[in-house]
Amino acid sequence: MTEATRHTPGAPCWVSLMVHGLDAIKEFYADLFGWEYEPGPQHLGPYVRALLDGREVAGLGRLPGDRHLPVAWTPYLATEDADATAESIRSCGGTIGVGPLDAGEAGRVIIGSDPGGAVFGAWQARAHGGTAVRGTPGTPVWHELITRETASVGKFYQVVFGHDARPAAPEDGEDRLTLSVGGRPVASVHGLGARLPRPRGPHWLTSFEVADVDTAAELVTGLGGEVLRPPAPGAAGREATVADPEGALLTLVTTAHLA
C-alpha cells in the first residue's frame, strides 16, 4: 500500500458515489473491496468515507429522496481555488450543479459538468486531502471520460484544470486523448461518436484495483451487481466492466504489476 502525497492541481484526488440505498451499497462495496467506513461531512446529506487499513479511499452518500439523478461514480479533480475554478468552468461552456461550498473543515467542493454533459467534481483541500492510498486492491487507479468526441472536451479540461491533452497513437484507430499533469498521465478521454450509449450519455468511468479480476467479477454477480463486459486483457492489465446493484458503472482491473 502506497500512501498518497498531496494531490497536484488538476489530478484526480477523490471519487464518490451518491445512491438511494446507502446501507445496502455500503455492504456491497465492503464485501467487494474490504472497505470499512467512518462518517464524513454531511453538507449534502448522509455521507461516509470508505477506508482501507484506516486510510480514506472513496466516499459514499445518500441522494435526496426528491432528486432522481443518475447513480454514478464521480471523480474529483484537485484545485487550489474552487471559486476561480467554478468561474472557469462556466466561461468554458460547462455548468455548475453544486457549489462552490464548504464541506465543514474538510475543504471546498464543486460538482459540475463539462460541455458534453459529463459530471465531475473539483476539490479544494483543507483538512481532507483526498484519497490517501493508491496501488492496492480496493483503491481507484484510473479515470476515463467516455464522450462523443475528444477535441472540444479536451480543450475544456486543458483550460480549466491545466491538463496537457495529447492524442493517442494514430494507428490505434480510436478517438482518444491522454490527460497529463506535470508530465504524468492522470486520466484519458475516449470519443465514441454515434456509438455513445444514448441513455447514459457522456460520463466518467472509474477503474478500481482488485487482486483477481475473474474472482471479483464473480463476486459482483453474487452480491447483486452485473457484469457488463467480462474479464479480458486491457491496456493496463486484465479488466472487466461491471455495475453495482444501483447501476453505477465501474471497471475492475488487475494491473500488470499485480498480475
From TrEMBL:
Gene3D superfamilies: 2,3-Dihydroxybiphenyl 1,2-Dioxygenase, domain 1
VOC domain location: 11-125, 139-255
Top-rank taxon: Bacteria
TM region(s), chain numbering: none
Pfam families per UniProt: Glyoxalase, Glyoxalase_6
Protein's name according to its UniProt entry: VOC family protein
Organism of derivation: Streptomyces genisteinicus
